[in-house]
Amino acid sequence: MGLRKLAYRLYERRLGGTLGAMETPRHVGVLLDGNRRWARSVGLTDVNTGHQRGADKIFELLQWCSESGIEVVTLWLLSTDNLNRPAKELDPLLRIIENTVRRLVAGGWRTNPVGALDLLPDGTAAILKEAGEATSGKPGLIVNVAVGYGGRREIADAVRSLLLEHASKGTPLEELAETLDIEHIAEHLYTRGQPDPDLLIRTSGEQRLSGFMLWQSAHSEFHFCEVYWPAFRKVDFLRALRSYAARHRRYGT
C-alpha cells in the first residue's frame, strides 16, 4: 500500500471514529454527477466508461450507508431532461442503468423505482417495476432509484394522482379546494411513506439541485463535493456526514 493510500486509510478510520456519537441522517439523497467529466479527465474517449464506473461506485456507497445506519438512499440516475439526449448517448446509458438495477436486486437491496416510468422505454420501465416488486419486502436500507425523474414532474404527478383519486370518489372540486393541504400532496409523491431527505449530496463541484426532490428538500441540508462521482471515496462520504452532524438544523427561516 502506498503512503498516500495509507494516509487516507488512517484518516478515514479517524474520521469514522469521530462520527460514532453524532447524529446520522435517516435519508440521504445523492446527485451522482460528473461521470462524463471524470472519463475525460483520465483520458478516456468513451464517456460510457465513466457511466459504468459511476454505476459501480453505487455499491460502495450503499455499503457505507448501511454501515452508518442510514435508512433510505435516493440515487438520481437519470433526469427527465436526459431523456431528450440522442439515442446513441441515451441507449448505452439505459443499458447501464438496467444492469445496475439487476445487480441491486441480485445483491438483496430493497430497490424502489422513483420517477415517471411512463416516459421510459417499455423494457427499462419493466425492469424497474419488477425490481420494486421483487424486493418490496426486503429489510434494511431502502434504495430509491430515480430514473426519468424531475422534481417538477413529480409534483405535477402527485397533484394529478390526488385529483384522480378524489374524482373517483365523486368529491366536488370546490370541496377538495377547501380541504387540500400539504400532507394530501405529500401522500402522492414518488417517495410517499418515507422520511424527507435530511442530507442531499452533489458531486462534481456543481452547487445547485437541478430540480432534485424539490418538494422533499424544503428542510434538507446540502453538501456539495468537488470530486467527480466515480472518484468519490469513503472519506468524502464521511466528510459529508460530519458536515451534516455539525449543523444546527432549523425548520423555518
From TrEMBL:
Role played: Catalyzes the condensation of isopentenyl diphosphate (IPP) with allylic pyrophosphates generating different type of terpenoids.
Stretches assigned to coiled coil: none
Needed cofactors: Mg(2+)
Binding site residues for Mg(2+): 33, 221
Lineage top rank: taxon: Bacteria
CDD domains: Cis_IPPS
Keyword Nuclease listed: no
Gene3D superfamilies xref list: Decaprenyl diphosphate synthase-like
Pfam family, one: Prenyltransf
Protein's name according to its UniProt entry: Isoprenyl transferase
Cofactor remark from the record: Binds 2 magnesium ions per subunit.
Subunit field text: Homodimer.
NCBIfam families: PRK14828.1, uppS
GO cellular component, one term: plasma membrane
Annotated GO MF terms: ditrans,polycis-polyprenyl diphosphate synthase [(2E,6E)-farnesyl diphosphate specific] activity; magnesium ion binding; Z-farnesyl diphosphate synthase activity
